[in-house]
Amino acid sequence: KNLKYTAEPSTALKGYRIAVMVDDDNAPLAQSAGADILPIHEDAPSYSHAEFEVWWGTQMRRALDDKLALAVVSSSSKRCKHFSDWLKHYDGGVVRFTNAKNIAKAITNNNGQGELLMDARKVAIEKIV
Question: What tens digit of pLDDT does each residue of 96-125 get?
């Protein structure tokens, strides 16, 4: 492969807000490629489904207002099972899930130029222009 080397950091994920449910490598990786990070595990109410629904609705509106495509990194961690369940059954709109592999591909594909982030169903998550 002919990778393009540059001293500039990747901006492949600029235009995305990546929501993470656990403290792992996904947030720093996505952030290093220009993504805005939403730490669900730190910021979201975890005691009440109803409170979480209101909070998540606010986050979705905020992402739209900031012209950022919002994607949640899915996790099988038991610590965030309630967040996963609540997001999968969110009533206020579609929640786009992605994973670590798709984040890495979005950054490195296209000879290192990056490409659109794919969701868990391999459908591109379009940036908001």
Answer: 999 999 999 999 888 777 899 999 999 999
Q: What is the pTM of this model?
A: 0.91
Please answer whether residues 124 and 117 qualify as being in contact, where contact means their C-beta atoms are separated by less than 8 angstroms: yes
Q: Residue 17: what are its φ and ψ, rounded to 5°?
A: -110, 115
Helices of type H across 5-121: 26-32, 40-43, 49-65, 81-88, 100-108
Model pLDDT for residues 21-45, shown as the tens digit of each residue: 999 999 999 999 999 999 999 999 9
Residues across the chain: 129
Which structure tokens are listed for 61?
A: 């509106």
> What's at 46, amino acid-wise?
S
69 by DSSP, 3-state: which? strand
- In the sheet that 36-39 helps form, which strands lie side by side, from edge to edge? 36-39, 16-20, 69-73, 97-98
CA-CA distance, 108 to 86, in Å (whole number)?
31
